[in-house]
Amino acid sequence: MSSSTVNSIFPAGFLWGAATAAYQIEGAAREDGRTPSIWDTFSHTPGKVLGGDTGDVAVDHYHRWREDVRLMADLGLSAYRFSVSWSRVQPTGRGPAVQRGLDFYRALVDELLAHGIRPMVTLYHWDLPQELEDAFPSGSSAGGGWPERDTAHRFAEYAGIVADALGDRVEMWSTLNEPWCSAFLGYGSGVHAPGRTDPVAALRAAHHLNLAHGLGVQALRERLPARARIGVSLNPSAVRPLTPSAADRDARRRIDALANRVFTGPMLRGVYDDDLLADTARITDWAFVQEGDLRTAHQPIDFLGINYYSPAVVSAAARDEADGSGAPRPDGHGASAHSPWPGADDHVSFHRAPGELTAMDWPVDPTGLKDLLLEYTAQAPGVPLYVTENGAAYDDRPGAGGQVHDPERIRYLHGHLAAVHEAIVAGADVRGYYLWSLLDNFEWAYGYSKRFGAVHVDYATQVRTPKSSAHWYAKVAASGELPGESAAD
Ligand code: PNW
Prior knowledge:
Blueprint: E1 8-9, E2 15-19, H1 22-25, H2 38-43, H3 61-74, E3 79-83, H4 86-89, H5 99-114, E4 118-124, H6 130-134, H7 150-166, E5 172-177, H8 179-185, H9 199-223, E6 229-234, E7 239-241, H10 246-269, H11 274-279, H12 293-297, E8 303-307, E9 312-316, E10 348-351, H13 367-379, E11 385-390, H14 407-425, E12 430-436, E13 455-458, E14 463-466, H15 468-479, E15 481-482
Parallel strand pairs: 2-3, 2-12, 3-4, 4-5, 5-6, 6-8, 7-9, 8-11, 11-12
Antiparallel strand pairs: 1-15, 9-10, 13-14
Helix pairs in contact: 3-5, 7-9, 8-9, 9-10, 13-14, 14-15
The structure holds 4-nitrophenyl beta-D-glucopyranoside.
């Protein structure tokens, strides 16, 4: 990427943030009226999460939020993205709200604002109230949840509750985090909650998430003041063909449809593309898409959040070449008993992108981020972009004196921030960056084994220690300038 020794100056007002999600940090899983979400059920099911880890305690943010806001203030962050636990504020997923749950988030927001930190609320970061997963509105025998249309309406009602409670003090609102993961890892490959493995359910879930987004935006618009900014966070796949051959480019097209256009089609353009419908025609006729749904999903949005970690490389299916050997992987990039790619398995093989690997075995390649930012600048003209997640897991261990030295993470962040800057110079309207994550936390199917935090957490004592990357990021945030490469290490 940039091999310059000159500092990259970010636009004035650029937000320097960090991100978290409720289930990954809060703990207090049974306090103040909170009921189980699908992630409580899933993590308590033996064999689903590495080491049998759960979010019961997590990093105890529910009790340590003041300390955590102080940490952010000490690091000079100007923005913080967190999610609301649905079952903490509306335990059954329908009906009246629980005031204590709402009070927690109001107090958190007030504390952030008192420290000059702009909150971004994510309404849904994967923790569906278990009661909604257990409901069977259309008589399905497999379960309810996102494959059921009613869940989208329940989400809109919940969005209204949170808007009523926080709308006077929160300006930035995101409906969903990474609906691809909710639909295809939750109901397709089953490596995320609720752990179902049914390609039809996965596609139904994707549609109802699109519908939920649209209904959610409508519910927010009705209640929020005009200054509110409403958007969504997607994890678009920066997917490349292994070779320029027509066959490999067709594999790329298939994954682009299933990873990206299945959401951006409805949300940004009000359509499901014909090739997506054709590729999945043997699985479903998409009869669950009702008249008007696409119009509902296609709401004007005020920003688009891009979450990015690593690119994907695909080719036409060729079993012996692909690195599909290893154990099932939560990212769907390895052999797995159940695929998160309905209809694509006979056609597509995944390959390792070049580049150093993080502790997730995800290759480091900042160009993917620059490419995505420019691609969505073109696809959503006039819609400001935020990088709502970017970061890396490494095997961080406190050294002598308790300090955590993580030069790999500094290099990762430096490379990706340089990519963001290059995208801005090339015309992308990127308004902010939220590092994933503020704190080490519950990394879903990997439990506490993967540390993404800029701040180290000792899980035995809950002691927080900013890693060297946190101090580095604080300097970048304070100056609004990314040091030239020679100054990165
Ligand atoms: C995102 N994949 O998750 C989430 O938004 C965060 O909650 C999470 O901690 C972070 O990225 C790091 O994993 C993903 O398998 C999980 O492709 C899995 C995948 C992508 C994103």
